[in-house]
Amino acid sequence: MGKLNNTGRQLRIAVDAMGGDYAPSEIVRGAVQAAKDLEVEIILVGPKAEVESELNRTDVTNLPVRLVEASEVIKDGEDPIMAALRKTNSSVAVATRLVKEGEADAVVSAGATGATAVCAMRYLGTIPGIERPMAGGAFLRLAPDTVVLDLGANVGCQPNHLVSFAAAGSIYAKIFHGIDNPTVGLLNVGAEKGKGNEVVKEAYSMLKNSGLNFIGNEGRIQA
Predict the structure, then answer these.
(1) Would 146 be classed as within a structural domain?
(2) How many other C-beta atoms are found inside a 10 Å radius of the C-beta of residue 200?
């Protein structure tokens, strides 16, 4: 049995077929492989002719892979944020709206971070108390259960933003890694309490009183 969503139905993932290097060929190949390996339904989103051309080169027999057309593409060289706001029928925008409309359970894009973040905020919003979108990931080989964020979605942050990143990371670790009470650490220039600039020092104080399982400027953590 494949991956199921919270209703017991096969997990449906909308994939921006035009986002990332060597799209759509490599994106389609990877998405089809995910349908095989993870047993999830894949919804490829992009210009019909281009995506179908790639699908015709790939064996999708008996695989839950389908295409939803998007008439626009955010291209290299465009300002990703402005393009995402202007091109409401871009592949990443249409893929994100599939989640909003309940047609998909998740959206994946390897395209520009700014465009993906704009579409996520515009069509999906954030968890209450989380002001900004963020990029996160795990140290897959070194520490696969450790969630690191933000990884580039934000340039300048205030202490409250760092606290919200910690809260989001803690929630992610609970849901996706099955950790009941994830430890939370603050990435800093040293382990001592007084290290860092004023933003980091204030974030330390706020995290200590946040109710999260905060253990200070520490690397051995889950979020």
Answers:
(1) yes
(2) 17
Task: Pick the closest to residue 15 from 97, 102, 106, 85 (CA basis).
Answer: 106
HEC states along 21-52? Answer: CCCCHHHHHHHHHHHHHHCCEEEEEECHHHHH
**What is the side-by-side strand order in the sheet with 106-108?**
65-69, 41-46, 12-16, 106-108
**Mean of pLDDT values over 69-94:** 97
> Can you give the pTM of this predicted structure?
0.86
Give Cα separations from 198 to 163, 187, 192, 205 (angstroms): 14, 14, 14, 11
Residue 142 maps to a domain = yes
Q: How far is CA 38 from CA 20, 33, 35, 65, 203, in A?
A: 21, 8, 6, 12, 38
**Domains held by the chain: number:** 2
Asked if residues 164 and 129 have their Cβ atoms less than 8 Å apart, the reply is yes
Average pLDDT over residues 195-214: 95
Output the domain CATH number for residue 92: 3.40.718.10
SS3 of residue 199 by DSSP: helix
Nearest one of 82, 106, 102, 85 to 16, comparing CA atoms: 106
DSSP 8-state symbol, 65: E
Summarised one tens digit per residue, pLDDT across range 110-159 is 999 999 999 999 999 988 888 888 999 888 888 889 999 999 888 889 99
Nearest 10 degrees: Cα torsion 131, 124, 120, 75: -150
